[in-house]
Amino acid sequence: MSKPQEVNSAEIRARYPDVFNRPGSSRLTTPVVLAAALAVFVFGLIDLDFSPSRLISGLSQLGWISMMMIPPDPGSSLPLYLKALGETLSIALLGTTLAALLALPVSLLAARNVVPSIILRFPVRRFLDSIRGVDTLIWALVWINVVGLGPFAGVLAIAVSDFGAFGKLFSEAIEGADQKQVEGIRASGGSALHEIRFGLMPQVLPVIAGQVLYFIESNTRSATIIGIVGAGGIGLQLAEQIRVLEWQKVSFLILMILVAVAAIDFISGKLRFAIIGRRAVA
Amino acid sequence: MTLAVAILPEQQLAALNAAYRKAVARKRLRLLAGFAVFLAALIVASIGAEVNLRTFFTYFGNFISYFDRILTLDSGQRVWTNVGEWFWGWHKWLKLLGETLLISYVGTLVGSVFAFALNFFAAENTSPAAWLRFTVRRLLEFARTVPGIVFALIFVIAFGLGPMAGVLAIAIHSTGALGKLFSEIVENADMKPVEGIRSTGASWVSCMRFAILPQVSAGYASYALLRFEINVREASVMGFVGAGGIGQELIVAIRKFYYSDVSAILVTIIVTVFLIDITTGWVRGRLFGKEART
């Protein structure tokens, strides 16, 4: 074996000028971007009233609160909490299903390979975007105005805000589908509806089923909080107990939410793999 | 060219046909059973969620007319006929919107710094010890499973009303979400550079700095930007529980039935979310090349 060559840094510098002699503009980019980001951060801290004293007193308060939370204890309201949890799960399931049913036809209108005309597609897409731009909590407030306080408003809120998300996701799945099947059906004389039913749907339904299951899972999380504005479920109990400073009950409710979400994660993960197989999800 | 279509003998064909039918029938049965279970779950859920179709149809008109009302000015005209009157509070709203953006910016930045500090301990291939990995992972899981607004509710009591509680809530939630995503990027990184650097006798910190970080930093930036986008939406409702931003103004307008204000604030929020989506999408595209949005 040959002996390792003597390293001559001057020679290496001369051989790779692009690495060692980068122009000033490209060297400066990173520090300038970092400095700007930091400047905005500091401005933000000042503008949002951050002060060390507030932070410290708040943290000590927080420590006190956490001490009060132990041990978690539902008191005598365990049946009430279980009912609220059931309500939350119902809201998530119904809301997601409703959203999926509504979004499927609309997503066809937003897909490039189904509706080639941009004039028709554009308003549908912007409509879906605007629905998505509004948070679920805001939709919950709107529906409370319409059907009154309670879990039904929650179902409708989840349905509407997921409708926007599903419309986009479904239309992307449809655009990703293979066109050859559709062409085959067109060649054999099928109508546009036949093309969708026999060419597209068999390809996209498993993808859609996976997404719906995933959303049921993530909506369990959203459904836990819409109660905070009065749309039913466990969030209502949580917000109430926080307002009256019953910290042991609060920590018990948080634990309940964690366990429920973990359980739903587990079940829907299993179902998802059963429907579409392991490969397609990853 | 000769073409031959093999035609099987009648008996064999019948047997194959029967097998096919049986397989299809079994599949159909399974599908039907799954559907029945799902339907039953829906019925149980609709009882649990107090779904009342009669209420729905009685009040559905309210939903339509709600949009009619929020698009009408006090004078009875349509909002777009008098934009100045519609956006009468734009000065205040823009300021609150700026506050919302700042809340999500500061929250995302703090969250990503914490996530960055923790993710190497949570990733399977870089974590120094199993117990450390387990602890950090459970911590991150807790931070992202508890909804941000629940943290905000608690922080409002600890830190007082105002944007500080919102920032901290967003920071904690972002730490949990980003820590998981970051550690997944690290788990996908190539370990050969790490071996190379370790063989020169470098410490764990240098291994992370010179072998892992160059591979993963673009992915970090992309996920952090995506999180910022999500956090803008989240920060827009932080005001509902008194944690700063435009949400406060919105909830007051909704509760007090200032109809045209509701639509004006909603429009400003939607436009802002659009702009942020487009800008961060563009920046991410430049950082990362074209990549599917997750």
What is the 3D form of chain A? Answer: flat
Interface with most residues: A-B, 63 and 56 residues
Largest sheet of chain B, if any?
none
Q: Multimeric state of these chains?
A: heterodimer
Element string of chain A (H = helix, E = strand): HHHHHHHHHHHH
Low-confidence segments of chain B: 290-294
Terminal Cα separation of chain A, in Å?
46 Å
User: Which regions of chain A contain 5 or more consecutive residues with pLDDT less than 50?
Assistant: none
> What Rg of chain B do the Cα atoms give?
28 Å
Number of alpha- plus pi-helical segments of chain B: 11
SSE topology:
The complex is a heterodimer of chains A (282) and B (294).
Chain A: H1 9-15, H2 17-20, H3 24-47, H4 52-69, H5 78-109, H6 118-133, H7 136-147, H8 151-175, H9 179-187, H10 192-226, H11 234-243, H12 247-281
Helix pairs in contact in A: 4-12, 5-8, 5-10, 5-11, 6-8, 7-8, 8-10, 9-10, 10-12, 11-12
Chain B: H1 10-48, H2 53-70, H3 83-86, H4 90-122, H5 130-145, H6 148-159, H7 163-188, H8 192-199, H9 204-238, H10 247-255, H11 259-288
Helix pairs in contact in B: 2-11, 4-5, 4-7, 4-9, 5-7, 6-7, 7-9, 8-9, 9-11, 10-11
